[in-house]
Amino acid sequence: MFKKILIANRGEIALRVIRTCREMGIKTVAVYSTADAESLHVRFADEAVCIGPPQSSESYLKMSNIISAAEITNADAIHPGYGFLSENAKFSKLCEEHSIKFIGATGEMIDQMGDKANAKATMKAAGVPCVPGSEGVIIDFADCIKVAIETGYPVMLKASAGGGGKGMRAVWKPEDLKDAWDSARQESKAAFGNDDMYMEKLIEEPRHIEIQIVGDAFGKACHLSERDCSVQRRHQKLTEETPSPFMTDELRDKMGNAAVLAAEFIKYEGAGTVEFLVDKHRNFFFMEMNTRIQVEHPNY
Amino acid sequence: MHSIECRINAEDPYSNFRPAPGKITTFHAPGGHGIRIDTHVYAGYMIPPNYDSMIAKLITTAQTREEAINKMKRALDEFVIEGVKTTIPFHRQLMDHPDYVTGNYTTKFMEDFVMQ
Description:
The structure holds two protein chains of two kinds.
Chain A: E1 4-7, H1 11-24, E2 27-33, H2 40-44, E3 47-52, H3 63-72, E4 77-79, H4 89-97, E5 101-102, H5 107-114, H6 116-126, H7 141-151, E6 155-163, E7 166-171, H8 177-192, E8 197-201, E9 207-215, E10 221-228, E11 232-233, E12 236-237, E13 239-242, H9 249-265, E14 270-278, E15 284-290
Parallel strand pairs in A: 1-2, 1-4, 2-3, 4-5
Antiparallel strand pairs in A: 6-7, 6-8, 9-10, 9-14, 11-12, 14-15
Helix pairs in contact in A: 4-5, 5-6
Chain B: E1 2-9, E2 11-12, E3 18-19, E4 22-23, E5 26-28, E6 35-39, E7 46-47, E8 54-62, H1 65-78, E9 80-82, H2 88-94, H3 98-101
Antiparallel strand pairs in B: 1-8, 2-3, 4-7, 5-9, 6-8
Helix pairs in contact in B: 1-2
């Protein structure tokens, strides 16, 4: 058991960790920026160390300052919370090098799940369903026709350099593909100076449903059912609920098994979330994995 | 059982959810059975502009979805935060939205949502 944990975070998550530690008889160290001197996490922790000015880059993201704070207070573990350094492979490794337990995923696990392309490749290898589409950039229109058939209509053409919906076209039937291909490339060229396109299956009436998982240190994982997080704005969740109103027992079993498969494939340890998109036909596709404690916790 | 969580942010839902940092002058949290609040703010707390705008998570738990929604409406009505704009009015409207009430919503839901 840890004797003293440093919480490398602020706000409600820092409080949540401090409260649990107090109940477990573990000493706590808060770190804070000068903007947070009056915060509750600073008052409720047994010790507090100022780690820098308000800008996150100079405080809550400043690895050397946080490691130093852990060393001068003799903390034997660091809880990163969510956001900030919680999914930072370098920081996880740095803690290990300093013989401080990082309460979260190892650097290797974060690397495997960290960037989207990596995560997708890993999950494909594990046999977890991913959004079908082209392998990278589409070579030419002949390739585009072929990939569209393999992917299955409806499909989404997307500009590699894209953003904000530019260079993006939904295509519902083969006869519309040529027009979409030409106009999306033109638009992309004009907006980004690059007309590289890739393709993904269009997810009809998508719902964001995620599965909470927990893994042990021996390669076993279990899931704790789902959360529906479809009410979101610019990828920021506004509400969550569980169970999902769209869920069936059969789908829960299938998605739960896929999430456990994902976690066990990378020998995931600790709490994590496997996010899926679910279409109107109740097909589900791996989106990403959050290798950290979840923000949301409606439980039933 | 059913649980719902609303993230209460210091943002103005009537102005495109623009962040609204500043000093909280009044803070009264709802209470009662089946209600949980996780927050780090209090009356007199200054929300710094440097970080995430989430200031509280309000969670209701009840036997059914309908009861959890009713409980959430009651809790949101009881929740008083003054001094800064918050997303409480948004959540209150959401809980009455026909598509939310029937559970018929997708990730496109917010594209068509208009504050009353």
